[in-house]
Amino acid sequence: MSRESIVLAEKIVQLDLLRDQLLEQLMEMAGNEAFELLRSIQNR
Fold it and tell me: What is the superkingdom listed in this entry's lineage (predicted)?
């Protein structure tokens, strides 16, 4: 496995952790509408 592959995998893991943190924040802010808001933004 190349060093570049390892670095890329590490970045993906970091992004995944950040995504979880941001989703938690969104759920706190938007409550039950969080997932509807995400879908709406994704479908723009």
Answer: Bacteria
